Amino acid sequence: MDLMCNAGIILTKNRILAGIRHLLEGLQQHMEQAAYLSERGSLSEMFRLPAKISKGENYLGLPYLVLDYPRHFESRNIFAVRTLFWWGHSFSSTLHLSGDPKEAYGPALAAARETLSRKQYYAGINEEDPWQHHFEEDNYRALAQFSEEAFATHVTRAEHLKIAAAFPLRDIHFVAEDLLESWKRLLGICGMSFREY
Asked: Is residue 197 part of a domain?
């Protein structure tokens, strides 16, 4: 009853989400500037659409904000880097590939397993629902738990290839830098070359 009668709780939640949106908008500007100055090579088509920030109130019962850039969702062909804020859990950075992009860039990701493992990335293992983003053991497995051969097999067999890293909410003061670095790392493995600005 006390919580129901306290409007301040919702107002505080709204202020926090506005702050997170502001953080993602700043991150988006840095991503767009880096993409503009980069050598995109075969990834140029993936940047045809502008970045997009969306929000929701109910991912497993909790609010979230998503920044998708690049975002190429075309039938079975997906190439996207998704930055997610999930209330009460984490920020995450996820490369999501399927169809032709998975065939094109999967081998480079398989070859980068050791590098990604050292940076504490995970591989999506949920065969039934590729739109789940939580880091429970039925959805993601640390790349460190895959042998080189097992990960190469996973890359080949997975319909949706997802590589993700999670960042604690308590790191809010420098998480934008970590998320931008992850974005560049994932796209760099796919062949994008960045110049400093």
From this structure: no
What beta strand segments (E) does 87-152 contain? 90-98, 122-124, 140-142
Domain of 69? 7-189
Q: Structure tokens of 141?
A: 């497995």
Cα–Cα distance, 127 to 72 (Å, whole number): 21
The number of folded domains in the chain is: 1
Dist CA 34 CA 19 (whole Å): 23
Domain presence at residue 81:
yes
Distance CA 81, CA 59 (A): 18
Domain membership flag for residue 195: no
Specify the residue for token string 């997610």: 84
Between CA 79 and CA 61 the distance in angstroms is: 27
Q: How far is CA 116 from CA 78, 146, 152, in A?
A: 21, 11, 13
Q: What is the pLDDT of residues 32-67, one digit of tens each?
A: 999 998 888 889 989 999 999 999 999 999 999 999
State pLDDT tens for residues 121-158: 999 999 899 999 999 999 999 999 999 999 999 999 99
Can you give the CATH number for the domain in which 45 is found?
3.30.930
